[in-house]
Amino acid sequence: MGETRRMGQLRRPTSDDIFVIQSGIFASAIIVVLVLTGYVLVSGSVPVWSKFGRGFLTGTTWSPVKEVFGALPYILGTIVTSLIAIAIGVPLSIGVAIFLSEMAPHAIRAAGSGVLGGLIRTMLRILSSGIELLAAVPSVIYGLWGLFVFRFWVLDYVETPLSKYLGSVPVFSGTPFGLDILTAGLILAIMIIPTVSAISREVMTAVPLAQREAAYSIGATRWEVIRISVLGYARSGIFGAAILGLGRAVGETMAVTMVIGNAIGAQAIPSSLFRPGQTMSSLIANEFNEADPTSLHPAALIGVGLVLFMFAITINVLAQLLVWRVLKIKSGSVE
Amino acid sequence: MERPKVRTEALNAWYGTNHVLKNLSLDMSEHAITAIIGPSGCGKSTFIRCLNRMHELVTHSKTSGKVILDDTDIYSRGIDAVSIRRKVGMVFQKPNPFPTMSVYDNVAAGLKLNGMRNLEKLDRAVKRSLEQAALWDEVRDSLFASGMSLSGGQQQRLCIARALAVEPEVILMDEPCSALDPIATAKIEGLMTNLKEQYTVVIVTHNMQQAARVADYTAFLYLGELVEYGETTQLFENPKNELTERYITGKFG
Amino acid sequence: MSNQSVREFKDWLAFIIGGVCVILAMIPLLSILADVVLRGLPALNLEFLTSGPGVIGQPGGGIANSIEGSLILVGLTCLMGVPLGVISGIFLSEFGDNKYGRFIRFLNDVLSEFPSIVVGILAYSFVVLTVGSFSTIAGAIALSIIMMPIVTRATEESLKLVPSSIRDAAAALGIKKWRSTLSVVLSTGRNGVVTGVLLAIARIAGETAPLILTVLGSQLFFSGLTKPVDALPLRIYRLALLPYASAQQQGWGAALVLIAIVLTLNIGVRLATRGRMSSVRS
Q1: Nearest C-alpha of chain C: how many angstroms from B124?
Q2: Which residue from A178, B128, B175, C117 could staple onto A155, CB 3.0 to 4.6 Å apart?
Q3: SS3 breakdown of chain C: % helix, strand, coil, rounded to 5?
């Protein structure tokens, strides 16, 4: 008579239950994809691990003919180009984020609600949309532009002067001709700006008003408010955004392939910014189709893919955890 | 009192560990309007949500006791909650017509989504429901305008028509006029009086004057318990319980 | 007094530096757009848009087969990726408020930032090797793996915006949850879903790396699901690397076509959702 009933007591499965299960199966496809990817990469590269062991990761010879494979130059290539991308791209992104989310609204208020204010507001909206549109440009078009336009900018305005004055520094050694590690890193820097700045803006806007007001009330200037309240509070979120940018840079293929110069083996070691290089992803894109399926070459490429996969997963998981945690804390504390 | 259409026996309800309804036993008669009154937080909304098994849609909710519709306990094993909700309809505090549907489609939604395809039947049902909801004359020429294009009061009558279209036996109303202006409120109160001829109406209201105006029977709830229940005139003019008297004279709540 | 003016100077400087950052970030976009238009426009003519490739290295011929290939690939990808993404999004929004849902959501976010070349390897191993050749279907499968997380996220977020009063109203009418979710809730949130799908299309239309490993590219028009096919971004890649000026110009022309499609989709979506709370991150 008076039994206590909870929601979801045992009963015959209804069409609603089937709906939950079926949609759950679809949603679980993701797990399948990730697991299969891991499986494919591991099983496909076994021949190369068994032949070279850890030497695959430390070797620098890459010779399909002699069937000797060492992936270190490409691992280094990915690391160096991505680091350049972050070193240049993240500060730029933070500058963009600060300007658009903190300073620009000020400028609008200062300009008032007249024609000037409206003009500035429109211009700012166009600017912020423009930054987002950077993300929409396909990678191959970045590569095209990099190959025919950007590389000459880098060559003429950055590499040649650097080579002239600092050519004795090992990192700047060699005669630059534009298709090299530096250009690849710079193009990656441009490509990560939309993501890193968008997330930075999001975490900066999530800083509670109370924090800012505290700084204003002691007479701080706009920049000081940003420095004290916003950046401090949003620091880990911005860090997460930077890591996400790193993840993007690591996985980027086409733009890099077209401007990095495509060196192989020991030649590809990034000893100088002005030397042609190779990243893990650009290597795979270049060689996969021509690799002789009867040789060890495809397995070697898949091995490189496995290393890339591990890099990407680690970085992306780290980034997601950071950004998630920050945004959750924000929304939790606002409530 | 005639045979009660709906009655509860020792109804208890919880939100998580919060014991919201305590041992409620209440009869609601057929072809009458029963009002549930009480201060905020007394459990009125939870109570009527137990009558159509909507309470169980909230996570961590629990119920015990019986709710007997005609002669069947709607909480007994084997009874499908969805079919109960077709017999016991509900109108909510804030009008909530389906935003992407026209007036016609809103009213027909309950029927269409339960499989009715015959256009003639649908047309008749829509007209009948809109007439019963006293909205037909106002929308007959714009049946295919969006449901959201109506005023607040009209939207609420649209929701009433939508609930009536599936031909329920009981109509639950959770503070149906609290979001509306006095004129719209008066229209809906008039509507309720007409509806009780065909249906059993249970209405939750925090407005005592409204209860006094429309309800045949009134139940006063306080902190999840039934304090007093009786014919409206008797409860308001001659309350048996001191707590009731203090509430209706405005001493609290 | 002087301390105050130093602080104000720093404030002003910070503003300028911020503005410079924005300008620096905008320059590549403007340069890309300018170059694509200036260098690609001369290549655009009727022949370019309607005929297949000519002789390599000589002027003439066009990219019609690439456009056709891209359209077919996008269509196939949507057939697979949209239902998968939408239903996953429905699951996460309606039934995903628990550990498992959070887990799936997390994986979803991880997958959406994935190196697309690895997706290419996956599709190669499972489809190309099974079918026996580079094929359209392999490319479509790779692209739908890339598309799925984007659509899932967009669907979940727009369904979450549908107020619970709508679900309550449908439940109170005695409508089964699956019916009300598909007919009422999804319909109310459809704008966000469509937005997500369009943005996903813009993204996959420009994807190249997975296609290198799956469809290979081709000089021919579409010749079957199990045969190689060409696609716009692939063609741009191949043309750009050829040492002939005529080929390179065709590459710019193809880039103009691709960027026109992609930007139209993006700007169109942006204009259509102006002022609304949509948070679809690509």
Answers
A1: 18
A2: A178
A3: 75, 0, 20
Tell me, letter by letter, the H, E, C secondary structure of A308-330. Answer: HHHHHHHHHHHHHHHHHHHHHHH
Question: Per residue in B45-79, pLDDT tens?
Answer: 999 999 999 998 888 899 999 999 998 999 988 88
Q: Show the domain range for C209.
A: 65-272
Q: What domains, with CATH codes, occur in chain A?
A: 36-103+138-202+238-334 (1.10.3720)
Chain B from 165 to 204: CB within 8 A of any C CB: 166
- Domain containing C197 — which CATH number? 1.10.3720.10
Task: Decide if the complex's ipTM is over 0.85.
Answer: yes
Which C-chain residues 47-66 have CB contacts (< 8 A) with chain A?
A: none
Query: What domain count does chain C have?
Result: 1
Which pTM was predicted? 0.87
- Whether C180 maps to a domain, the answer reads yes
Best of C173, C191, C276 to substitute, by most chain B Cβ atoms within 10 angstroms, is C173
- Among C106, C77, C94, smallest CA distance to C156 is for C94
Domains and CATH numbers, chain B: 4-248 (3.40.50.300)
Question: CB-based contacts of C70: which residues, under 8 Å, 6+ apart?
Answer: C205, C231, C232, C233
Task: Tell me the chain B residues in contact with residue C184 when contact means C-beta distances shorter than 8 Å.
Answer: 98, 100, 109, 113
The residues of chain B scoring below 70 in pLDDT are 1-2, 253
Residue B34's φ and ψ, nearest 5 degrees, are: -110, 125
User: Does B11 touch chain C if contact means CB atoms closer than 8 Å?
Assistant: no
| B84: phi then psi, degrees, rounded to nearest 5 | -65, -40
Mutate to test the interface with C, among A16, A26, A260 (most CBs of C within 10 A): A26
> DSSP states of A227-282 as a string?
IIIIIHHHHHHHHHHHHHHHHHHHH--HHHHHHS----GGGGS-SSTTS----HHH
